[in-house]
Amino acid sequence: MDSFDLDSYRRQWQPRIDAELGKNLQEWEALQGCPRPLAEAMRYVVLGGGKRLRPLMVLLAIRAVGGEEERGVRASCALEIIHAYSLVHDDLPAMDDDDVRRGKPSCHRAYGEAMAVLVGDGLLTQAFGVLADAVPAPDVARAVSLVARCAGTAGMVGGQVDDVLETASTTAEVESVHRRKTAALFECALALGGMLGGAGPAELAALSKYGAELGLAYQIADDLLAFKGNQDVLGRPTGSDEAKGRRTYPAMAGEDQARQRCRDLIHAALESLEPLGAGADGLRALADFVWKRT
Ligand code: GRG
Hints:
mainly alpha
């Protein structure tokens, strides 16, 4: 794991991802009929920071199966755009009601609630256009179907609904919510990268499993950071989970057990990479990054 320098990998690829996202924004702005205030708010949301984890996961998955990362940059942006929409809607007063995101006023605080709803709608819709344009013809239907399944009603949206309705009363139920709300998009990034890199069925299954386990670990790690009040690493104010009585893993099981669960999930993620060789070292380094975040 030490042999792979994740930080320099990120420094190498993040500017490419950001440039591609910027190009998309420019194209939408130039479309006749796209209102300027909408374009401005979408730019604020998409280009206003973030670790670009999901696009980087797409590229790392391509690398893991011996493909060329450059071929996945455009498609990987579709997942970042879906992620950006999910954060905008998650911050709305009707959901988490958060004023700050990525160290800045959240979208509805900067542009108003109606615009924030529409920014999310716009981003989700455009994301599928980006995907359809970016994925080579033989794989496009499979890619669109994968992303719809992971981001949709049985994936991210479904998990968010159960989170909002507070249906979970055990740690297993909390995990089920988080597997859909957060981990489904991680799994999607890994599977999309595998697909673009030409992975066979066994490699795809290994990558998807890694994404699902890492995604759940990431959510627990994120909740641990919020629980412990580490605002600097988190990039948003802490304490709001407890104030709202949210059922997070650390709140229900305690800090030690949450840490242990996170560690077990990281192990499971790493184990699932066993069929892949040294090409997956970047994904191993990413798992290490998630663990060290706690
Ligand atoms: C509104 C349909 C809908 C879904 C929202 C992902 C999500 C579902 C809500 C986010 C809630 C949250 C803060 C979860 C913790 C883990 C997580 C996904 C954090 C944010 O992702 P990062 O760390 O953020 O990749 P950046 O800002 O780096 O992009």
